[in-house]
Amino acid sequence: MTRLLAIKDADGEREVDLSLLSSKKIDKKLKSYQKKFGGFTKFLRSYDCESGSPEDYLTLIDWECLLHEQKNRKGARLSLVKGGSKKPR
């Protein structure tokens, strides 16, 4: 499943396909969120959808999608590793 992220910056709005980002860029964005807000769980617990700003909501969605993409990439590498060869009978 392709995850698209809507980003609003000085040039306007654009969509970014997370599967096309490098692992370094994903890690960099995750570290910037952690530095700014603490951990994801801490941010999620403090987030209130009724009184929260739209920017906080976008941060939550972006952070969640980045974590999911990172998890999928790590899981894909591990699933390719198999045990030793089969012994003949």
Task: Give a brief outline of the structure.
The chain has 89 residues and is an alpha+beta fold.
Describe this entry's structure for a reader.
- This protein is of the alpha+beta class and 89 residues long.
- The chain is 54% helix and 13% strand.
- The radius of gyration is 18 Å and the shape is extended.
Major sheet size, sense and barrel closure? 2 strands, antiparallel
Q: Can you list the strand order of the major beta sheet?
A: 1-2
What is the CA-CA span between the terminal residues? Answer: 42 Å
What is the overall pLDDT average?
Answer: 81
> Which runs of at least 5 residues are low in confidence (pLDDT < 50)?
none
* Number of helical elements: 3
- Rg from Cα: 18 Å
Give short descriptive properties of this protein.
3 helices; single chain; 89 residues; alpha+beta
Task: Please specify the SSE layout and strand pairing.
Elements: E1 4-9, E2 12-17, H1 23-37, H2 40-46, H3 54-79
Antiparallel strand pairs: 1-2
Helix pairs in contact: 1-3
